[in-house]
Amino acid sequence: MSDVLKGNQTINWYPGHMTKARRMMEEDIKLIDLLIELVDARIPLSSRNPDIDKLARNKSRLILVNKCDLADEKITKEWLAYFKQQGFYAVMVNSKSGEGVKTINNVVKEACKEKIERDRKKGIKNRPVRAMVAGIPNVGKSTFINSYAKRACTKTGNKPGVTKGKQWIKLSNTLELLDTPGILWPKFEDANVGRRLAFIGSINDNIINMTELSLELLQFLKKEYPGVLNARYGIEEKDDMVGMLREIAANRKFLMKGNELNLDKAAMTLFDEFRSGKIGRITLERLPDES
Length: 291
Ligand code: G4P
Fold this sequence. Notes:
By secondary structure, the protein is of the alpha/beta class. The protein has 2 domains: 3-179, P-loop containing nucleotide triphosphate hydrolases (Rossmann fold), CATH 3.40.50.300; 209-275, Orthogonal Bundle (Conserved Hypothetical Protein Ylqf, Chain: A, domain 2), CATH 1.10.1580. Helix content is 42%, strand content 12%. Strands 1, 2, 3, 4, 5, 6 and 7 form a 7-stranded mixed beta sheet that branches. The model is unreliable at 154-159 (pLDDT under 50). The structure holds guanosine-5',3'-tetraphosphate. Guanosine-5',3'-tetraphosphate binds next to helix 5.
């Protein structure tokens, strides 16, 4: 990561907020049976915090591969199979449009069955299953909670319910969702993880040399998605990344005083259009090697 950080900048993750969020998450997790973890479909592993497995041991687990509208569908399906193989329930969703959100009801029921069965063995009956949503910042937690609550409540005719202390959204007679999500920070010590997080905009752009980083995005797109850059920007896909960036600037007429090409603007445009899906449905992270 240090190669694209500006000057001697460090990534400021506000350690105070992180510690507080972590402590809240540890408290909240004690109250729930099912953890719904959101990951970003474009970087399904890099957008996880591996500590979650320790924090959520003994809980039923559902991974939602969110923002699936922005990712390569074929690879998203491979990731779903990967997570399932690891013992998680996994579903792909687009929380923004609501696509896939309804279908998780059945999976939630299935995941909760285990809990209900455990309760039954302990002699506990008719206790609603409680769930919470967790994930790294910007992964879509609030969007998902709103979307899920709206859909589930419309279906069951229930209104969000309030109990003392914590606020729970009553999704059905058997399921309640904590209305505040748990926040975990990604682990970006690995330069590749940091880079992927920067590509999708999860690291403050102001501390990153976006023009440098754009050359890496161009390289990735050229190699993994040949043709998309040509289709979007009408440029020749070649080994000279700066040359490609220059062509983007020229084709879009991004000029500075004296008619010099504005490469910074071309880089930001590339990121904006990549992040909003205009370049296409692109996944940045492949499944880890079997070996
Ligand atoms: P958080 O609570 O985990 O921090 O994330 P939040 O819900 O605030 O979502 C972060 C951004 O991701 C929002 O965009 C939201 O609209 C977008 N988002 C969430 N889920 C999806 C999805 O499945 N697909 C797509 N394409 N986007 C999604 P924003 O730019 O911050 O806001 P807005 O422009 O949408 O209003």
